[in-house]
Write a structure and sequence with these properties.
By secondary structure, the chain is an alpha/beta fold. It is built from 19 helices and ten strands. The two termini are about 45 Å apart.
Length: about 400
């Protein structure tokens, strides 16, 4: 089958790679020229999904009309805020009858339209399919077992989509409740923010379990009121995605990141889990075990989540600041320690907040080193950015709850 995937972020790339590995001819439309280039030349999306080899048959293109021309299945995987504009720009080139699989999750600001509704409004008469469920792009591209839901009012389109994507490690279940499947993928983020805050405040696993469970009940009630089927929320697109987003360390949700930052300040999540396991064990020596120092190591994915930086930015900084030189493990992957993450946060603060040039930041860090303040300044850079990120997240949430437009600040 000839397929197009629109949007070459992490998710679009992982889905395009999956389709290509399933033997389909796939064109992937990317917004950035460098993404087109690295996918075609190196078979890697260095910018959005670095470190994962992609199927050599996958073709990236920068012209959206050419991407969708003559295909039998189109998958949309752009961020939600640009979906309408991108679908509008491609509408006249979209082949009639080809199902539009909407893998973007979210609810459009102002119109409150679901993503399939946005696609239908821009392409009247289109056959839309919502693809949702617990699925981190990095795990899909790594071939780890994943199950999703493909929902459409037209069962034939859902079945076609199911066949196209299904593989030995990727299972797609069909559904007819498009509203429920899409709401599950969008509303889970509210609960992820809440559980992130609860964990950041150290409220414990009881609180998290309560929030997830009561959150699911609220999502189900809201979904019901909006025309969804209640039992959809008990499935992959509801409970499944909720559990992933509220507990998965790969979640990009900013509040979850805050949780990780807070956790990082005290103990790593792996330490935390070890302690929880210890408490469940019947042995008597658990408090001693909990106090044992555990070496902290973080993957590049963890560091990007903790610092809110893209991998290519991190790699660029490592080429510019000699003191950022993470060790590599046996597989050649970077392994960071706590101290390096503190330094990365200090570099981020100097470059983004205090507006130093690279040279200026190098000199400033040298001054801190000479005066013996480097460790404490780096630590407080990590702390203050975690708090700042939390405050800005809370302000956005309050503005949304008040019905006020979100304030646009300078991103740090
Ligand atoms: N990343 C995941 O694991 C994952 C999993 C399931 C669903 N999703 C959903 O997929 C969607 C895309 O997420 P992602 O993680 O792939 O995003 P991403 O941040 O990795 O990629 C962003 C993509 O959007 C493009 N883009 C950015 N600004 C643009 C603009 N102004 N105009 C056109 N294109 C622009 C970029 O070029 C890039 O292709 C989201 O709705 C997300 O909820 C993501």
């Amino acid at each position: 089958m000839r397929c197009a995937v629109v949007g070459a972020g992490a998710w679009g790339t992982a889905l395009a790679d999956l389709l290509a590995r399933n033997g389909h001819g796939v064109r992937l439309w990317a917004y950035e020229a460098d993404v087109v280039e690295t996918i075609n030349q190196k078979h890697e999306n260095v910018r959005f999904l670095g470190g994962h080899p992609l199927s050599p048959s996958l073709e990236a293109v920068g012209d959206i009309g050419r991407a969708v021309e003559g295909v039998e299945l189109v998958t949309l995987a752009t961020p939600s805020h640009v979906l309408r504009r991108i679908v509008k720009s491609a509408a006249s080139s979209l082949p009639r009858g080809a199902p539009l699989v909407v893998a973007t999750k979210g609810i459009e600001n102002v119109t409150l339209s679901l993503m399939t509704e946005v696609a239908e409004q821009e392409v009247p008469g289109a056959t839309v399919v919502a693809l949702s469920g617990p699925s981190f792009a990095v795990e899909v591209v790594a071939g780890q077992p994943t199950a999703v839901v493909v929902a459409s009012k037209r069962e034939q389109a859902a079945a076609t989509t199911q066949r196209a994507f299904s593989s030995a490690y990727f299972r797609a279940y069909t559904h007819t409740d498009v509203i429920g499947v899409e709401l599950g993928g969008a509303l889970k983020n509210v609960m992820a923010v809440a559980t992130g805050i609860a964990e950041g405040l150290g409220l414990g696993f009881n609180a998290r379990a309560a929030l997830v469970t009561r959150g699911l009940a609220e999502m189900t009630r809201l979904g019901s009121a909006l025309g969804a089927q209640q039992n959809t929320f008990a499935g992959l697109a509801g409970l499944g995605d909720l559990v992933l987003t509220c507990t998965g360390s790969l979640s990009r949700n900013r509040a979850v990141r805050y949780r990780e930052s807070r956790t990082f300040r005290g103990s790593t999540s792996s330490q935390r889990h070890r302690r929880a396991d210890d408490e469940r064990a019947p042995s008597g020596g658990r408090s001693m075990k909990a106090k044992e120092p555990v070496q902290e190591f973080f993957s590049i994915g963890d560091v990007c989540t903790l610092t809110d930086l893209k991998p290519h930015v991190l790699r660029y900084w490592e080429s510019q600041f000699k003191f950022l030189h993470p060790a590599k493990n046996r597989s050649g992957n970077r392994v960071y320690q706590r101290r390096e993450i503190e330094l990365i946060m200090l570099v981020k603060q100097l470059l983004y907040t205090e507006k130093y040039t690279i040279d200026g930041a190098r000199q400033k860090i040298d001054e801190y080193r000479k005066s013996g303040e480097l460790r404490s300044v780096a630590r407080s850079a990590l702390d203050s950015q975690a708090v700042e990120s939390m405050e800005s997240e809370l302000r956005s949430i309050l503005a949304i709850l008040d019905g006020q437009p979100e304030e646009k600040g300078i991103k740090s």
